[in-house]
Description:
With 70 residues, the chain is mainly alpha-helical. It is built from 2 helices and no strands.
Amino acid sequence: MIDALASKPLAKAIGARREMQRHLDCLTRQITARAGRQAITAKVRSRARYRSGPRRNHQDIADSLAFERW
């Protein structure tokens, strides 16, 4: 039998976890979008200046932004 008093803190913890997961998903979407914009900007700049430096792709930028954010 489930204790009614024990289920309230559990429900509260589950709700808090869901809210945190939504927030983390939002941050992940923001990081991915920003990385995409920076990757495009880096491509345009490298074409305009004919630089021979290493190019950073979308995943590299997303990883570095995620590391900075966390």
